[in-house]
Amino acid sequence: MPADLPSILLLLGRLLLGGGFVFAGLRNIQNAAFLTGLMATRGVPQARLALWAGIVLQIIAGVLVMAGLCTALACAVLVLFLIVATPMFHNFWDHQGPDRAARINGFVGNVALSGGFLTLIAQLL
Question: Chain-centre distance of CA 89, in angstroms?
Fold first, then answer.
């Protein structure tokens, strides 16, 4: 195994993890009206403000993870974001059939992302 392979893998992992959140944040800008309405129906106070705070958080923390700057803090912030956002947007318990399956997949995916961030934090400590 080349001596620099772990560094290359760590860089690729950071790019993929952080880049996914940058992409999601940018995508959420395009869907802001729909997402604000969805959050409001779920009882989120100041849904528009909360959405935009989440979008900014996703993009900034994602860029920090990608760049390897304040990585542990950015990962921790994204784990907290996932803890809040996952039950809000992947509420499989309120759905049936294929929609339920899709939401379970999203829920499990976000749990796995949290695991990836926690692993990255552990590697940095």
Answer: 12
- A 10 A CB-CB count for 122 gives 10
Describe the crossing of helices 47-67 and 32-41 by its angle, rounded to 10 degrees.
120
CA dist 1 and 75 (Å) reads 28
Supply the pTM of this predicted model.
0.89
| CB atoms closer than 10 angstroms to residue 61 | 26
84-125 pLDDT tens trace: 999 988 888 888 999 899 989 999 999 999 999 999 999 888
Angle at 81 between CA 30 and CA 105, to 5 degrees: 75
**H-run or E-run covering 27:** helix 5-30
What is d(CA 38, CA 117) in angstroms, rounded to the nearest whole number? 27
Residue 68's region, left for phi above 0, alpha for psi from -120 to 50, else beta, is: left
Q: Give the number of other CB atoms < 10 A from CB of residue 77.
A: 18
Structural contact between residues 87 and 44, judged by C-beta atoms closer than 8 angstroms: no
Token digits for 44?
């989120």
